[in-house]
Amino acid sequence: MNMMDMFGKMKEVQSRMKDAQETLSTVTETGESGAGMVKVTVNGLKNVLKIEIDPDLIKPDDREMLQDLIVAATNKAMANIETKAREHLRQATEGLLPNIPGLNLDGLMS
């Protein structure tokens, strides 16, 4: 592969990466805590989209536990969306560049 081809591929990678980043809002992940009693859904942009709470948890005496469960579910969703977002971006650029040892495009995916 000559340098001009490589530059052309890099422009295509940048274009596809931009498109993939724009669609990260459609990539979602849900984290659960309390055996599924609290669920938090986030997107690839790390925005919380939805919080679901089992009706049995909504009691004044359980407020502190409920808050802890929401935090735990949110943290699980945020941890899992990172992997899912990277995979989404990897698939968008798959096959564009040859496998070059030492070439790490992870910086483009953050």
Automatic annotation (TrEMBL):
Region (Disordered): 10-32
Regions of compositional bias (Polar residues) in chain numbering: 22-31
Basic and acidic residues compositional bias, start-end: 10-21
SUPFAM superfamilies: YbaB-like
Location relative to the cell: Cytoplasm, Nucleoid
Molecular function terms, GO-annotated: DNA binding
Keywords attached to this entry: Cytoplasm, DNA-binding
GO cellular component, one term: cytosol
Keyword Iron annotated: no
Physiological role: Binds to DNA and alters its conformation. May be involved in regulation of gene expression, nucleoid organization and DNA protection.
Assembly: Homodimer.
NCBIfam families membership: DNA_YbaB_EbfC
Stated family: Belongs to the YbaB/EbfC family.
Record's protein name: Nucleoid-associated protein HNV11_02090
Organism: Spirosoma taeanense
